[in-house]
User: Which sequence fits this backbone?
């Protein structure tokens, strides 16, 4: 596995080694021994499907003490995956990175606790799978409005497809951590 730290400390791009032949391919998507930079124990796997190109999900996170780190990959189609530093005391507060994840490139993104996460489908029929190091907690579920100008993510779509929940998320300045 090749692990590359992004401009946001603690956020990593992981490129698994793929072994292929005429029959197909095999890859290890996670190995604790090969990823010492990821200091967490995963307890939950999630799988999401987006039927249409331009479907946006995020910016989501869980508040402490139920904050989650995530290891994200795309198993079908392609998406732009985003991590946003939401730690008010961080030198990179409000900064973000975007990485294209696809079934073809097999890249993964590690998003640590304290970061928001969102993605937008670049193709129809997108599947995203991610590991989380804490259980889902409805009481701690939170998010930031996708179009918050204080963050300024360029999602690549003017009118994305949104859920009611994502349309109604607050601005970062209105959140209480």
Assistant:
């Amino acid at each position: 596995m090749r692990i590359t730290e992004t401009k946001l400390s603690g956020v990593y791009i992981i490129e698994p080694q793929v072994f292929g032949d005429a029959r197909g391919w095999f890859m290890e998507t996670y190995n604790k021994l090969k990823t010492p930079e990821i200091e967490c124990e995963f307890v939950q796997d999630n799988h999401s499907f987006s039927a249409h190109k331009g479907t946006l999900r995020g910016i989501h996170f869980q508040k402490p003490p139920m904050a989650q780190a995530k290891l994200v990959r795309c198993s079908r189609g392609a998406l732009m995956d985003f991590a946003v530093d939401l730690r008010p005391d961080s030198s990179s507060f409000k900064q973000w990175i975007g990485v294209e994840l696809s079934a073809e490139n097999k890249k993964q993104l590690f998003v640590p606790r304290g970061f928001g996460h969102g993605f937008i489908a670049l193709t129809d029929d997108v599947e995203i799978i991610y590991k989380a190091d804490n259980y889902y907690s409805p009481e701690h579920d939170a998010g930031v409005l996708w179009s918050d100008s204080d963050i300024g993510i360029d999602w690549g779509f003017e009118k994305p497809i949104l859920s009611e929940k994502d349309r109604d998320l607050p601005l970062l300045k209105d959140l209480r951590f």
